[in-house]
TrEMBL record:
Belongs to the antibiotic N-acetyltransferase family. This is Aminoglycoside N(3)-acetyltransferase. PANTHER family: AMINOGLYCOSIDE N3-ACETYLTRANSFERASE, SPBETA PROPHAGE-DERIVED AMINOGLYCOSIDE N(3')-ACETYLTRANSFERASE-LIKE PROTEIN YOKD. Its EC number is 2.3.1.-. Coiled coil: none annotated. Transmembrane segments: none annotated. GO terms for molecular function: aminoglycoside 3-N-acetyltransferase activity. InterPro entries: Amioglycoside_AcTrfase, Antibiotic_NAT-like. It catalyses: a 2-deoxystreptamine antibiotic + acetyl-CoA = an N(3)-acetyl-2-deoxystreptamine antibiotic + CoA + H(+). GO terms for biological process: response to antibiotic. Keywords: Acyltransferase, Antibiotic resistance, Transferase. It comes from Gluconobacter thailandicus.
Length: 271
């Protein structure tokens, strides 16, 4: 959505003060740990842009709260698997040989929105070390959440998502659909830990040298997220509201993961 379109659909500027009111009405409280997904264009015209969204979130959770966001960098993957868009096969070897190694401070996010990208560079924000599907966090629990994310199982039982699941964290979805709900990847891994994998590759630094490494990643399937999301939408654990003009949700990680694991363990969902 263009800025002109955002202005046209807005009844007025969405200010930082308005955002704070909307977050509190939705149920965000001081001291919470919140994994945030944001579709900035759905909020409307925000005075101050992504900065106002981040500052409002930090103000509402306060100094004892922690904000977490996805920081995916899918371009640091094997070019043979690229499809949006694909590149010619004749380019693959050159890309593998010259792709810059993942750097938690310099590698930008991709496909997770402007708020997540601005948050990545926010003073005091930390980032996990997975080259493709890292997370960022700001607050007193950031180190705990980001401390471990295995290369070959970044969403599993030892991951930032697993920590969020164990510490009573919440998910805040601002104008995003269920296909963006990263938390459900943990449910995928818990419901089928021996599920299918695929071969991938990336550039990282090993012993202070850039190397192209090959590894296997779990196969994910976001197409089945909306069906579980529909069940969650009708459950008492989930709170609905608006942030600006964006339909938004707030819900606890642990209960959502538990419900998804139970659903995906049933034959109808496994088919």
């Amino acid at each position: 959505m263009t800025e002109a379109a955002a202005i046209a659909r807005s009844g007025g500027p969405v200010t930082q003060a308005r955002l704070m009111v909307d977050f509190r009405r939705l149920g965000v409280e001081p001291g919470m740990t919140v994994l945030v997904h944001t579709a900035m264009s759905r909020i409307g015209w925000v005075c101050g842009g992504p900065r106002s969204v981040i500052e409002a979130l930090l103000q509402v959770v306060g100094p004892e709260g922690t904000i977490v966001m996805p920081a995916q960098s899918s371009e640091l993957s094997d070019p043979s698997g690229w499809c949006e868009p694909p590149v010619p096969e004749s380019w693959w070897d050159t890309i593998r040989a010259s792709m810059p190694a993942f750097n938690p401070h310099l590698t930008p996010t991709r496909g997770v929105g402007t708020v997540a990208e601005v948050f990545r560079t926010w003073p005091g924000t930390r980032r996990s070390l997975h080259p493709q599907v890292s997370f960022t966090a700001h607050g007193p629990r950031a180190v705990e959440i980001l401390s471990s994310q295995p290369l070959e199982d970044p969403f599993g039982a030892v991951s930032p998502l697993a920590v969020l699941n164990g510490i009573g964290a919440h998910v805040l979805m601002i104008g995003t659909g269920w296909e963006t709900c990263t938390t459900l990847h943990l449910a995928e891994r818990l419901s089928n830990p021996q599920g299918p994998t695929f071969e991938d590759g990336t550039a990282i630094r090993v012993d202070d040298e850039r190397r192209w490494v090959r590894f296997r990643m779990p196969q994910t399937d976001v197409d089945r997220f909306p069906a579980v999301g529909a069940k969650l939408d009708g459950h008492a654990i989930l709170k609905h509201g608006h942030v600006g003009s964006a339909p938004s949700r707030l819900f606890p990680v642990a209960q959502a993961v538990s419900m998804a694991v139970e659903a995906w363990s049933l034959p109808a969902f496994m088919a």
